[in-house]
Amino acid sequence: MIKSKSKTLVAIYALIMLLFLVDGYNCKIVQFIFGDSLSDVGNNNYLSKSLARANLPWYGIDFDNGLPNGRFSNGRTVADIIGDSMGLPRPPAFLDPNLNEDLVLKNGVNYASGGGGILNETGSFFVQRLSLYKQIELFQGTQVLIRAKIGDTEADKFFQEARYVVALGSNDFINNYLMPIYSDSWTYNDNSFIQYMMGIFREQLILLHGLGARQLMVFGLGPMGCIPLQRVLSSSGDCQDRTNKLALSFNQASTQLLDDLSSTLPNASFRFGDAYDVVNDLITNPNKYGFSNSDSPCCSFGKIRPALTCVPASILCKDRSKYVFWDEYHPSDSANQLIATELIKKFGFKPVNETESPSPAPSMAPSADGN
């Protein structure tokens, strides 16, 4: 009799544990990130032929162990910071060899790729990069694995409860339309090119909705004509006005697209995150926000401009926390923190999971040159 009761208790315990484990797959909301170098957390480091990789010092100098980690910054991305504030785990790079189904269920996935764009042809100069269509294709593959792991019903719930971030577009202008080596530069004018982009973008967002994306945020473009790489093209060092106007037009068209899709696609909550004014004010009035430089990169190759990426021989600015831009393209950790904070306030992002303990904001160490 005692043995019988013992076996019964063991069976009940095993059943409870099994139910707990199955339910555990659905207890946490994760995020799936699609983007370019502003959101890449290491995918391009696994693309051996890519010319757009953040795999050299001094990238990552203010992140965890200070070693390059695939982020095109000295520290965190805007997506890192916003996700942390919402209690969302930081999703690993899709191409990380350690990624498996359990990690996807626990942390989500980041498909972002430096040099990638909405258009397939964008960024071909970099040889290897993942366009948005390719990122969505990889997401489809992820879904196959998760459905095999937990079944269709639980997978539908998992993917529909997840948060989605889509943040691309700047490369479609800077590394496509505005460069005469690309056919798009002479095939379209400013208005028709944006219309062409929006047609493709609509198809991609509808495809994501069909794959379960219900709560999706598209982040708009900042004043990309004011990044150091664009300023150096001008003899005066001023922002490129045409490039900034293209960013504004893209944001306006994207806002209309998201409003339309959100009102027509079933159960869709598609939002557009317009950070143009926030970033523009930061660049125009850096002292207002505690910065001292908003027109040149912290990590540069002396007087040689533009040095497209940070390299071990680069010279770092004396105080990384005072520079808006880390390299010729990308904001510093301090700038990303300010941008993310303003977006959190603007859009009222709320925690969706119990907040864990993410990597803290970095304490800027002395520059590599000793200053």
**Level-1 CATH class name:** Alpha Beta
Order of helices and strands: HEHHEHHEHHHEHHEHEEEEH
Beta strand %: 5-15%
Domain count: 1
Q: Which outline best applies?
A: globular
CATH architectural name:
3-Layer(aba) Sandwich
Question: How many individual helices?
Answer: 12
Class from secondary-structure proportions: alpha/beta
Report the strand count: 9
Notes on the protein architecture:
- The protein is of the alpha/beta class.
- Helices cover 41% and strands 9% of the residues.
- It is built from 12 helices and 9 strands.
- It has helices at residues 2-24, 78-85, 101-107, 132-150, 152-161, 170-177, 184-187, 190-210, 228-231, 241-264, 276-284, 333-347; strands spanning 31-35, 108-110, 163-167, 215-219, 269-273, 293-297, 299-300, 315-316, 323-325.
- The protein has a 5-stranded parallel beta sheet with strand order 2-1-3-4-5.
- The longest helix has 24 residues, at 241-264.
- Residues 8-24 have low confidence and may be disordered.
Strands, helices and their partners?
Layout: H1 2-24, E1 31-35, H2 78-85, H3 101-107, E2 108-110, H4 132-150, H5 152-161, E3 163-167, H6 170-177, H7 184-187, H8 190-210, E4 215-219, H9 228-231, H10 241-264, E5 269-273, H11 276-284, E6 293-297, E7 299-300, E8 315-316, E9 323-325, H12 333-347
Parallel strand pairs: 1-2, 1-3, 3-4, 4-5, 6-9
Antiparallel strand pairs: 7-8
